[in-house]
Design goal:
alpha/beta; FAD/NAD(P)-binding domain; protoporphyrinogen ix oxidase, domain 3; FAD; Amino_oxidase; flavin adenine dinucleotide binding; EC 1.3.3.4; plastid
């Protein structure tokens, strides 16, 4: 009998089947599973999922502080919290979930086909520093503009309050309506859960919704704001009205509360971004999961596919995997599942049909990431600033007649993404309002993106783009629809009623879809898990 003195993190999500006529959307496990032998391992914590879409860090993160005796903080659990070591398992042959960094070093290109960047909050920066990547962090220019397509023109979005009176994306009446609404001069809350569209139209007016929030929802969630829950998707903004009576009132109250309860001193090791920006790493986002995997060593098990979870006679669980070495069983005191909700639903159904039913209600629409490159001279002159394509990128409201959700100026955002004289553009297409992309071929997706870009960014007579990558994610981003929080609570409650203490749900459908939010949520989960193990599992 083998014994691993560690907590265990596992990703059981099977690779999705590739769609016809295009690159595989996820890497398959290229082997036939044969139960050659059964091995047994014991563990304090099992973490299922090395992070699904935008959550790659989540599975790792919950291990981030597990090993204070090393300089590795891989899960915020072990020595510091009195928890045993951590073992992470991942069904694929590589770490990182849907973080997919691709490089063509001989041609000078580096791009992302999953999440593209993250907001450099302190939890993410802590993970990067603890993983040895402080010197590899790269930050976008906080002064770089962001654009929204409106009436055929790319219009800059205000980056600070002082810009509000001068930007031309909104009319003067629209700005006045937004200001009055933010102050509280608007209809009262309806007494029910509001959609993002309902909340924004009521508080800030039609123009803010149609020209700012709708394209933002498309860009972040690939979602339909008429169905997204304001409380679930943008809880911080929703709480401003709840706590302060209006958006501005809530903001003032939040500032006052911060003054009464100052934050502890900031970790001096962390770099300080120069403004509101995004970040990545010198060689792309994949550097982070790779670095954490390297530090954890054999505590990370790749190509381990979870097939079942059962409650053991003692406090804990038995998990069965198909691995390259055969069938492996693991006994664990606690389990954290950071796999997609639909995979968790299948795994948990034998334990709790109520929990499985609740988890099956979350919707993941398809999204394609289309990465193409043009020569610099293909950019329209009116879109250049000081002769260069500058900015974070652009968003496209659905009302403007283009399919593409948005475009990231990858070669402008971070260094060494494209060779000299070329621009690199990452385009997202699909989402809740355009699920038909799954039936399109790779060439059709490229044609749709190129056709859209020639309407506002690319010279109509420019040469065809160089196609670097087309990645289709059939189930991409979980939608935080109206009722989302109720379904999540129903799943957790069902597990509690069934006596499945120590079985925790995590991932982007729990913490939030942004990479940084997944990291923050993982630290929060780690604290909860350590409390559980300390109070119950070790008694």
């Amino acid at each position: 009998m083998r014994s691993w003195p560690c907590s265990l993190g596992i990703r059981s999500s099977p690779p999705q089947k590739p769609l016809p006529n295009r690159r595989r959307t996820q890497e398959p496990v290229s082997r036939k599973w044969r139960p050659q032998r059964r091995a047994y391992a014991r563990s304090d914590k099992v973490l299922i999922g090395f992070a699904p879409v935008h959550v790659v860090i989540q599975g790792l993160k919950e291990k981030a502080e597990a090993m204070d005796h090393d300089d590795v903080k891989a899960i915020a659990l072990a020595t510091r919290h009195g928890v045993g070591e951590v073992l992470v398992t991942e069904a694929r042959g590589r770490p990182g979930g849907n973080i997919t960094t691709v490089e063509k070093a001989d041609e000078g290109y580096l791009w992302e086909e999953g999440p593209n960047s993250f907001q450099p909050s302190d939890p993410v920066l802590t993970m990067a520093v603890d993983s040895g990547l402080k010197d590899d962090l790269v930050f976008g220019d906080p002064n770089a503009p962001r654009f929204v397509l409106w009436e055929g023109k790319l219009r800059p979005v205000p980056s600070k309050p002082g810009d509000l009176p001068f930007f031309d994306l909104m009319s003067i009446p629209g700005k006045l309506r937004a200001g009055l609404g933010a102050l509280g001069i608007r209809p009262p809350p309806p007494g029910r859960e509001e959609s993002v569209e309902d909340f924004v139209r009521r508080n800030l007016g039609a123009e803010v919704f149609e020209r700012l929030i709708e394209p933002f929802c498309s860009g972040v969630y690939a979602g339909d704001p008429s169905k997204l829950s304001m409380k679930a998707a943008f809880g911080k903004v929703w709480r401003l009205e709840e706590t302060g009576g209006s958006i501005i009132g809530g903001t003032i109250k939040t500032i006052q509360e911060r003054g009464k309860n100052p934050k502890p001193p900031r970790d001096p090791r962390l770099p300080t971004p120069k403004g509101q920006t995004v970040a990545s790493f010198r060689k792309g986002l994949a550097m982070l999961p790779d670095a954490i995997t390297s530090r954890l060593g054999d505590k990370v098990k790749l190509s381990w596919k979870l097939t079942s979870i059962t409650k053991s006679d003692s406090k804990g669980y038995v998990l069965v995997y198909e691995t390259p070495e055969g069938v492996v069983s693991v006994q664990a005191k606690s389990v954290v599942m950071t796999i997609p909700s639909y995979v968790a639903s299948d795994i948990l159904r034998p334990l709790s049909s109520d929990a499985a039913d609740a988890l099956s209600r979350f919707y993941y629409p398809p999204v394609a990431a289309v990465t193409i490159s043009y020569p610099k001279e293909a950019i329209r002159k009116e879109c250049l600033i000081d002769g260069e394509l500058q900015g974070f990128g652009q968003l496209h409201p659905r009302s403007q007649g283009v399919e593409t959700l948005g475009t990231i100026y990858s070669s402008s955002l971070f260094p060494n993404r494209a060779p000299a004289g070329r621009v690199l553009l990452l385009n997202y297409i699909g989402g809740s309002t355009n699920t038909g992309i799954v039936s399109k071929t790779e060439s059709e997706l490229v044609e749709a993106v190129d056709r859209d870009l020639r309407k506002m960014l690319i010279n109509p007579r420019a040469v065809d783009p160089l196609v670097l990558g087309v990645r289709v994610w059939p189930r991409a981003i979980p939608q935080f629809l109206i009722g989302h929080l109720d379904h999540l609570e129903a799943a957790k409650s069902a597990l509690g009623r069934g006596g499945y203490d120590g079985l925790f749900l995590g991932g982007n459908y729990v913490a939030g879809v942004a990479l940084g939010r997944c990291v923050e949520g993982a630290y929060e989960s780690a604290s909860q898990i350590s409390d559980y193990l300390t109070k119950y599992a070790y008694k």
